TrEMBL record:
Gene3D superfamilies: P-loop containing nucleotide triphosphate hydrolases. This is ParA family protein. Keywords: ATP-binding, Nucleotide-binding. The keyword Nucleotide-binding applies. PANTHER family: COBYRINIC ACID AC-DIAMIDE SYNTHASE (PTHR13696:SF99), P-LOOP CONTAINING NUCLEOSIDE TRIPHOSPHATE HYDROLASE (PTHR13696). One of its GO terms (molecular function) is ATP binding. It comes from Gloeothece verrucosa (strain PCC 7822). It comes from the Bacteria.
Length: 251
């Protein structure tokens, strides 16, 4: 049965979209068919990481939500764009970056049930093994209704007091929604900190497993979302940490 994975954070700037793109790619490298949906409709951007230029995007998630296109027609095979080796595939459903479209979503909202129906349709049409949902940061009805249908919820957290407090609230709400499985990922950690101590501290605080601890590295900053990190630096410790998290999802 295909698995649906939501990647979420309480605040922006946690590296959520970069994480989603790299984890999805790492799983596709294992030979799987992977879909990614950018539901961060208010501030879309994951298409940049996958090398999908805005001017080449004709249909988006917005068009599906407005009844203008089937969701599968808004799915782009980015496997060739990022030069993905092997038999795996990645399909991306981007959100519109047009100011008018973003403004319309902000003023009108959208039908979350239609969105969730679209997820199921996408999995079936593209015969996906995994579907990743890149969510909008923060707490909202739309975000949590999507999270509720997920098999796995990954929460991105930085070693920051605001992140700690916001993640605690997010975890409580997710538990009320009876999310099947939750994993924590700690991102942008200074190399001077003890990763193992930080991992144990966070696991004890939230009573949840930490699937990965990612350092703040110069190579990630230099790449600046211009490509998928694990493809450009396959032997880097960060890429190895993505592989570790991928195995947790696959298993």
């Amino acid at each position: 049965m295909p698995r649906v994975i939501s990647v979420h954070s309480y605040r922006g700037g946690t590296g959520k979209s970069n994480f989603t793109a790299n984890l999805a790619t790492t799983i596709a490298l294992q030979g799987h068919r992977v879909g990614v949906v950018d539901t961060d409709i208010q501030s879309p951007g994951i298409h940049n990481i996958f090398g999908l230029e805005a001017e080449t995007i004709n249909k988006t998630l917005n068009n599906y939500l407005w009844g203008q296109a089937a969701i599968s027609d808004a799915a782009y095979n980015v496997s060739e764009t990022i030069k993905l080796p092997g038999e795996g595939k990645i399909f991306l459903v981007p959100s519109s970056v047009k100011a008018d479209d973003i403004s319309r979503i902000l003023s009108e909202g959208y039908d979350v049930k239609l969105l969730n129906d679209g997820f199921r349709k996408l999995v079936k049409d593209l015969q996906l093994d995994y579907l990743f949902i890149d969510t909008h940061p923060g707490l909202s009805k739309e975000t949590f209704l999507s999270i509720a249908i997920s098999h796995v919820l990954i929460l991105i957290i930085r070693p920051d007091k605001q992140d700690y407090q916001g993640t605690a609230v997010t975890v409580d709400v997710a538990r009320q929604l009876k999310v099947k499985k939750m994993l924590l990922v700690v991102n942008k950690v200074l190399k001077s900190l003890s990763f193992e101590d930080l991992k144990h501290k966070i696991e004890a605080a939230y009573e949840l497993p930490v699937a990965g601890v990612f350092p703040l590295t110069e190579e990630v900053i230099q790449l600046a979302s211009n490509g998928v990190f694990c493809l450009q630096y396959p032997h880097h410790p960060v890429s190895q940490e993505f592989l570790k998290v991928a195995q947790e999802i696959i298993n």
